[in-house]
Amino acid sequence: MANIHHPKRGSHGYWPRKRAKTETPHIKSWPEGNDKPKIQGFFGYKAGMTHAFIVDYRPTSTTSGREVKMAVTVVETPPIKIAAVRTYQRSAYGLQCSGEIWAEKLDPELARSIPLAKNLKEKNWEITKDAEEIRVIVYTQPKLVTSTPKKAPEISEVKIGGGSIDDQIKYAKEILGKELKISDVIKEGDMLDTIAITKGKGWQGTVKRHHVKLLSHKNSKHRRMIGTAGSWHPSWVQATVPQAGQMGYHQRTEYNKRVLKVGENGEEITPAGGFPNYGVIRNSYILVHGSIPGPVKRLIGMRDAVRYQRGVKIQKPEITYISTTSKQGA
Question: pTM here?
Answer without folding.
Answer: 0.91
